[in-house]
Amino acid sequence: MKESLINLLGKTPFSPYLKAYYTIYQRDRSAFLQTALRTKFIHSRKENMIERRVEQLEKVCKSAKIYFTPGERFFYSIDTRLHVIEYPGYRRLGNLTVDYSMLLEKGLDGIEKIIDEKLKNKDGYLKCLKKSLEAVKFYRKRCIKESKELSSILGKVPLEPASSLEEALQSILFINSLLWMYGHHLIGLGRLDKILEPYYEDYDKSKELIKEFISSLSKYYKFKSNVLPGDTGQVIVLGGEYNELTRIFLEAMMELGLPDPKIVLRVNRNTPDDIWELSYKCLKKGLGYPLFSNDEVIIKSLQEYYDKTDAQDYSTSACWEPLIPGKSADQNNLANINLLKPLEHALNGFSGSFEELLEAYQESLNKYIDETIDAIESLKVEPSPLLSLFFPDSLENAKDIAHGGARYNINGMLTVGMGNLINSLLNIKRLCYDKKRIKTQEILNILKDNFKSYKSLRFELENKNLKYGMDEPEVIKLTNKIISMLHEKLRGKYKFGLSSPSYLTEGESTGASFDGRLAREPLGVNISPIKFTANMSYTEIFNFASELNYSKAYNGGVVDIIIEKSLMDHIPQKFIGLIKTAIMKGVMQIQVNVLDPNVLLKALKNPELFPDLIVRVWGFSTYFKDLPREYREIIVKRALEYSKYGD
Amino acid sequence: MEIYFKKGDCIECFECVKRCNFLEKPEDIFRFPEHFECVEPCPTGALGIYGEKITTKKLLEILTKDIDYYNNTNGGVTFSGGEPLLQSKAVKKVIKKLKPIHIAIETSLFAPEENLKDLLKDTDLFIVDVKILNHKIAQKTLQGNLKTFYKNFQTIKKEKIDTIIRFPAVKPYTFNKENIKKLINFLQENNIHHIQILEIHKLGLEKYKSLNLKMKNFKKPAKNEIKTLKSKLNERSIKMDYLKI
Ligand code: SF4
Known about the structure:
Chain A has 3 domains: 39-185, no CATH class; 187-325 and 558-647, no CATH class; 330-386 and 409-556, no CATH class. Chain A contains 29 helices and 16 strands. Chain B is of the alpha/beta class and 245 residues long. Chain B is built from 10 helices and 8 strands. Chain B has helices spanning 15-19, 56-65, 67-72, 88-98, 113-120, 135-142, 146-159, 177-189, 202-210, 223-235, and strands spanning 2-5, 47-50, 76-79, 102-107, 125-129, 162-169, 194-199, 239-243. In chain B, the strands form 2 sheets. A 6-stranded parallel β-sheet of chain B has the order 3-4-5-6-7-8, with helices on one face. A two-stranded antiparallel sheet of chain B has the order 1-2. The two termini of chain B are 24 Å apart. Chains A and B meet through α22, α25 and α27 of A and α3 of B. Iron/sulfur cluster binds at residues 10-16, 26, 41-42, 44, 46-47 of chain B.
């Protein structure tokens, strides 16, 4: 409903302001009026969309208020009142990572040189890029005039190449703040340990600087949060190759104990022991990161579309979907495919064999995907000369990344409800075909009734039979079959993954399902069993997950486990061994919530008493107290399941 | 295999009663301990079966699934209660195939000596449950012959296989003056310098209830009683861990 309203607004030639107000309303209902009143809209009436976007950037750079507190190590200022209007019919780019290494190596001046050289023989878009760059430089000039101290902090960056770690970090912060003010959301930071390696100084000094840098990034937490508090998409990707900065970042994050930014750690056979140990310590502290990302699986899978060298340099978008920083303008999170929906349609009036049911499912899945694609493609992509400045291919091609200027433009979708679908199908197979107790035609009535007159059946559906997440050939085969269906349909156009943040929202709009789920209840979380029960174990889930066909489904594939705090405390080596082995066996990504059920139960009653309690939701860590009640409840419910059985 | 019934999980749907002509209510199942099929229709798992008959082949299949995890976490496989020694032939078959993985056997040692001998070669660790060290009471409460226990223990000792002694602290059955004294004697005589004391756990209690066995009134020792025991043991240079489950 929310989705369609915003799309509707997007399509009508309504005043762009209306859409802007609606966006503000959606992001924070309680403070809507307050926010709306202090908002400064950045608008442009230019005909040409690219020129319009350039003018918007110029206005941001001219009017942004500069916040600087003397004594700060780094300058990082965001004028949160600015709202860069998004025009109807367009979709704004976000959820990606620019190429900071180019910024650090060349500086804005170097980038300008590239543009100037090309400008000699071409016109048009490059002029817009040049104007945009000038706007950024103008903003810098304003900052320098602000105060002597600020001027000396900025020094020669971001105009000139960075020549020390401090300059490199300041340069990144400067551009990063502009990206936020220009209205891009979920802006990742990329592989900072690798990017910053040339500027590494000594251990202590570097660590001190990194800590200050992280503290700066963690500012404007609420402004940066997308749908939920903490959902900022500020992902720092570490590892793959390892250096002192990998260690420093992990240590710094652990010592600061902040929920934001978040860490994705690329792991492989060469991941050093002390990096594993540091990760263990971060998780034990309850920070919810790092998320472990399996290089071997991902790099291999990415080669469906990406060049091998680029694949090796992968980073992720806001949660965990792989992309190539500064090279892919991929929008990895364009839509959620709710896998339960097509099953309802397939069952309508269906009679036939189980194989025929799967065919009917595939047919209705295809239709559903077509509709989803139509909805996505009805919107044009809004150009962003600012982002394009930091995409080397975009400069080379003299094309905005919205118009194919980047090297890769492979968008992605997420799927949700795989566990519910698989459990439903397994139940149908058992009850309708093996035991012949129920006819397929009866199923929809039972579901419409929301199990009111089928209580015992519901329990049976929930508790008996094979389940998603079990290391059983039948379950794995069925899951891979659905993956193949998706791949067959989306191949060549879209990537897709097996993890999605929308398990609650999609659940709300989905009727009862034959896995025993009541109408409007949440869908399953990522690649995790719907219900963690006595006969499951961590190793079983990992064994299951390692058998999935990630070469087709790699736009995020996270196994999400919860470990009780008291258990975690006692088993450092066992924990590391568990995760290492799971990765070795081919699990794609692992996210771990370390929770103490007793604390959680108390915090559920009285969130304010636990202001520092951090939990992991979707792909981000956040303060428990900031979450809406439904999200708090689902975390507690899952934690209790795992604490009952999880050893 | 044993049928259980967990009242808390029962939704009174009477599917079990429909299946079985002998039942009027689910609780009646305790009068028909062999009615394993009547448990099957229960949708919630309120009625179910503890234990499972499994072939050694299937067991091996399950255990080897996780073999990489055992190897990478210094883990291993522990065979425990019931009494693995009573199925020594089957256990032997399985552990032979599992080697070189670390194998532990948790046992009360109340089993014929031949059975123990079956397993001596391939076991890396024996976890010996010591409960009651008075011949008469052991016979009566545990249906175990202490002579067998002592004999078996000497056999393990001779073979120099790693051993952990475990002692559940249950008042009044095991945790009483006489028994503790005997325990200490036993440890000293055998030159044992480490013991794990187990706190009785609720899990067991739930399970007893669901099998309709009245747990006789017992308690766990108070904190200071455990402390006293600990210092007594330490004086004799025996290290004590208190494990809570
Ligand atoms: S079938 Fe299970 S839930 Fe139903 S009455 Fe019997 S024991 Fe209770």
